[in-house]
Amino acid sequence: MNEDENGEKKAKRFLELLENSWRNSVSVNAHQTIKERRWNQKDDIPLTKDVIALRDHLRKLEDEAKAELKHGFSLAASKNETVLSQLIIFNKRREGEASRLTLDTYKEANTSSLNEDIFETLSTLEKELSKQLTRIEIRGKRGRKVPMLFTDQMKDSISLLIDTREEAGIPAENPFLFARSGGMTNICGSDSLQKHAEASQAEHPELLRSTKLRKQVATLCQLLDLDEQELEHVARFLGHDIRVHGDFYRQTDKTFQITKISKLLFAMEQGPGTLKRKNLGTLELSKCEDITGSSHNVSQ
């Protein structure tokens, strides 16, 4: 009995320590360690030239597959992959959102034209884009409604895929637009993107992933000097709220801090006159001191 009582006391003592001390002694320190390990990790975004290389590679494959399909050869799987990958790249969508787009959602989407009064307020370029692009709302992360844009070329390719579903061996009961032959599942967008990125002769194909592409949008938005409302529109298109878009994605960009924030820091050392009526884009410096201690003129 003494051994049982001692064991019970030790167990109770352990549970008390676990409840009272775990958070401060273990959990907080563990979370802080994880955060610190991420501070200086390399977190690159795709190069524009690599995105273009992948896009051109996919378009070439798409044209080849389209020609074969029109001549009766079944290359539906290949064409499915190329169109799906193009949708992910163009819209910067999460691959799962695009992959699980259903045939019914695509067919039943509201594709009516813009309100006439709103249309008249648009620029010439914006009017042309509104005629060439179709917007469809799909199910996003956590059931959130997110938009996806389709070009005329994408719609033509999808129409051909729909018309040849039976010949491609896709069961009529398969609900997905980008369906696998002989099954009830959808094509995996991440696998497709990875395969074609490696075949595209991109310099850094490992960066051509949906998550990295989304970070590229958020990071490059900083160079546009977007106001709060414009930034919110971009965030909503990506399926984020403004807090996530700003606090998480922007913190990965070292270019902005090195080129813009450092310019502000140097300007502050030269006196308040340098800052008057300036923003980070128009701020100029007469000189700055580099790490060797020498001064040089940097005014443009």
UniProtKB/TrEMBL annotation:
Superkingdom as given in the UniProt entry: Eukaryota
Name the record gives this protein: LOC107374416-like protein
The organism's taxonomic lineage, starting at the top: Eukaryota, Metazoa, Chordata, Craniata, Vertebrata
